[in-house]
Fold this sequence. Notes:
Blueprint: E1 3-13, E2 16-27, E3 31-35, H1 42-50, E4 55-64, E5 67-68, H2 74-79, E6 82-85, E7 92-96, H3 97-109, H4 133-146, H5 151-154, E8 157-158, H6 164-178, E9 182-186, H7 194-207, E10 213-217, E11 231-236, E12 239-244, H8 246-255, H9 264-267
Parallel strand pairs: 3-10, 3-11, 6-9, 9-10
Antiparallel strand pairs: 1-2, 1-4, 4-5, 7-8, 11-12
Helix pairs in contact: 3-6, 6-7
Bound molecules: adenosine-5'-diphosphate and magnesium ion (2 copies).
Amino acid sequence: GSELVIKNLHANIEGKPILRGVDLVVRQGEIHALMGPNGSGKSTLANVIMGNPQYEVTDGEIWFKGENILEYSPDRRARMRLFLAFQYPMSIPGVSVANFLRRALEAVREGNKPVEEGENPTGRMSKRKTVPPGEFRKLLQEKMRLLKVDNSFINRSINDGFSGGEKKRAEILQMALLEPEIALMDETDSGLDIDALRIVSESVNAITGPNLGILLITHYQRMLNYIKPDFVHVMFNGRIVKSGGKDLALELEEKGYEWLKPSDEENE
Length: 268
Ligand code: ADP
Ligand code: MG
Ligand code: MG
């Protein structure tokens, strides 16, 4: 199966070091929970893995399916079936959820042909019909059933007046449809209400299986009562300072994070 391998990753934002040597391997079929206090670099890690140009990689490597992807564009990474569920999906008035999903699927399907960097400047919004309408409808219906999403939902404008829970539902529907091999799910630090938490948990459980590896970034130990991770990692100050099984999440629930904080000397 596919593997995402992160080696000694260092990254800066605006010249400020944020990631300071991250090592992590996520394989298809595994669920990894990434936890840690606010500001420790969890979202930065997800952004760097997806190739967000705001972040500068200063050292280390990211390998996916045996290729060093550090120089690849975000679109190319997505076409390789790496997926990032965004913290704050943008609102696109006038585009229905169904149409948005079709475009997203078409963009990823371009990956079946060799597309060189810069060759397709229209990227995600390509109008090429690479997904026959009948096939799209069938696939969408299948995923909607799986995630218990009804028809009225996919006809609404994307994120237009969506609640936190509905945004999550759209995101996870997109993820189910694109069938990534490795998915990064970054939950918001705040504002994920009980409803959204439950939707995320149930949906993740519905789509996990041998073909999907997940790195689930979460502040909420509570979520791990619903989703059973194979591995739990704690990030502190730009490094993974502890890894373990799901029992580590219970330990964190009991003891918090402070006991894992590296000493100042170790930080320098
Ligand atoms: P987490 O997701 O663990 O809460 P983040 O990766 O969001 O942590 O942030 C790590 C550090 O990087 C924080 O100190 C934060 O202020 C800083 N940071 C994150 N994104 C940006 C950005 N776009 N510009 C400047 N600083 C940022
Ligand atoms: Mg944060
Ligand atoms: Mg974050």
